[in-house]
Amino acid sequence: MKLVTVAGPPSSGKTSVILKTLRWLRDDGLRAGVVKFDCLTTGDAAAFEAAGFPVLTGLSANFCPDHYFITNIEDCVAWGARRRLDLLVSESAGLCNRCAPHLRGHLAVCVLDLLAGVDTPRKVGPMLRTADLVFVTKGDIVSQAEREVFAFRIRQVNARARILFVNGITGQGAWEASRLWRAAPDGAPVTGGRLRFSVPAAVCSYCLGETRLGADFQNGTLRKIKIPDAPAHA
Amino acid sequence: MPDPSDNTPAGGAATPATPAAAAAADLPLAGPRCAEFFALNHLPPPASHRALRSWWEAQPWAIRAEAGWDYDRLREALAAFLSASAHAAAAPALDTLEILPGRDKSGAPERHALCLRPGDIVALVGPTGAGKSRLLADIECLAQGDTPTGRVIRINGRAPDPESRFSGEGKIVAQITQNMNFIMDLPVAAFLRLHAESRALPPRETGAAVRRVLESAVGMAGEPFGPETELTQLSGGQSRALMIADAAFLSPKPVILIDEIENAGVDRTRALELFTGQGKIVLLSTHDPLLALSGTSRLVIRNGAVADVIRPTADEQDTRRRLALLDQNLSALRERLRSGGRIGRDAAASLPMTMTS
Fold first, then answer.
1. Per the CB < 8 Å rule, is A147 touching B198?
2. 20 to 30 A from B172, CA-CA: which of A208, A225, B4, B22?
3. Containing structural domain, residue B63
4. Residue B160 domain-assigned (yes or no)
5. pLDDT digits over B151-180, tens only?
6. B49-84: pLDDT as tens digits
7. CA distance B26 to chain A (A)
């Protein structure tokens, strides 16, 4: 089974693009399914189900979403294998932009939305930097010139990835996307595999449910903002 | 398809690269691009360090850990940033664009093969749903018999390099549609400079290129705007004119697909001349009689296939000239009313009722 990790900021068009791409793969006779990772709530499962794709939803709720992804992906892959899928897509939002759900040996896709602005590629970090494929969405309503500048900005962050304009509404580019997914590497074991990028370190009192503010309540791994004219304190 | 595992630096956070490999992979630090990279990533400037390795070794732990950097990742990111211009610079040379026949919606073979050359303008006509967009899409994705129409596109007599099918930068096609807008919060000239930068134009050529785009855009739009006008403040006609001039002069793409720009308030004849002057191949899907007759050829699209290829006859060319005249008169009238003028006998005389036919 192929595993494809798809990450991108909220509302960048991940679900639409995945749906359009999977339809082409299904036409080829491939069995595809989706595991959707989210924090609070998601209605995307219904969209996949309506299109006839098996879907698994994971809500991290009050747990760090990145750690939730990492500690669950193995079981999700096993679920896909039991359903005899040829291809499993893991969809997750970009979370805090400091993380990336991409795994070594598995196709990694980052979805970016042209409407988010030309500085976006410089802000999103590892989920773009470590991706093999970058899908740029919503290009149909943005000028060709801005598309070219956007692609250049992506290139400045990731020199190796393929950049493809894919439209989740019209489906333009989804066929090309499906060819690239069909050629994704097959069957690398997830167990014992490696993340492409480490997740941030933070184990502090707030991770464990603290809600009060102030230095007295801050314990664990902390990091303070550097303020030039702040008075020195003990 | 690149091997995805290739995209990971050789050493992860926990596995330092061997000293020999790292030394071989050092990067010199020089030039404004380097400084820009450090500023963008909120890293201390390279200052007196001449190579990345020595700069890295001089940094305290907190800086190194900032965004999850390790030396290899940082080197890779800097190399990516510096090499971005190289990707953009290559403008694909195109001598011929062939469209080999596929089949129509009922599976019957398409009868017409097409071979287009720089400077050609092809108008696509047919009712909504006839397959105009599908033909444009086949060209856009450089179909190889693998789309629903079964058409095959050949570039310079050969099957295209797979890379040009599966990457946005490799695509040979620029698109302009009625739905497109400028969304960037920038003045016109600053934006054009940004586009020129992404094309890796040398700085001394940038100024001239920006001026040329601006001048021809203003010429087409009718209503003037300046280098400091905000992109998002442009009227529909001004935006479209700027997109057209930019696609003609600054975009590296040799093929332009235009989808229904007739109502944009742009001098259409001039727009087409601009593209042919730059040696572009233009395909335009249109219901506008002036545009439909302005092509070097006209494709009739029916039931998903090219049903006819029409070269303009002398009669059609004559009709086009009359339409162009009518179009000019209409524009002049519009301009006169807009600027508060009155209409006299001369204006009525320019309208077709009194034209000899």
1. no
2. B4
3. 15-89
4. no
5. 999 999 999 887 778 887 778 889 888 888
6. 888 888 888 888 777 776 677 888 888 888 888 877
7. 17
Average pLDDT over chain B reads 83
| B210-265 residue pLDDT tens | 999 999 999 888 788 999 999 999 988 899 999 999 999 988 889 999 887 766 66
pLDDT at B17 (0 to 100): 44
Could you tell me the CATH number of the domain that includes residue B204? Answer: 3.40.50.300
The residues of chain A scoring below 50 in pLDDT are: 234
When CB atoms are compared, the residue of A130, A142, A151 closest to B181 is A142
Asked if residue B99 has pLDDT above 60, the reply is yes
Task: Judge whether B293 lies within some domain.
Answer: yes
For residues B83 and B176, membership in a common domain is answered with no
- The answer to whether the Cβ–Cβ distance between A156 and B250 falls below 8 Å is no
Q: How far is A55 from chain B (nearest CA, A)?
A: 25
Scored b (16 or more CB within 10 A) or e, A165-196 reads bbbbeebbbbbbbbbbbbebbeebebeebebb
Portion 159-178 of B in contact with A at CB < 8 A? 165-169, 171, 174-177
The pTM is what? Answer: 0.80
User: Of A145, A149, A141, A147, whose CA–CA distance to B214 is shortest?
Assistant: A145
In a domain, B156, yes or no: no
Q: Is residue B238 domain-shared with residue B279, that is, in the same domain? A: yes
What is the complex's ipTM, to 2 decimals? 0.75
- To 5 degrees, how large is the angle CA B125–CA B126–CA B129? 130
Domains with residue ranges and CATH for chain A? 2-182 (3.40.50.300)
For every residue of B87-113, DSSP letters joined together read: HHH-PPP-S-EEEE--B-TTSPBP---
Residue B55 shares a structural domain with residue B196: no
How many domains, in total, are found in chain B? Answer: 3
Please list, in sequence order, all residues whose beta carbon lies within 8 angstroms of the beta carbon of residue B77, skipping any fewer than 6 positions away: A129, A157, B37, B41
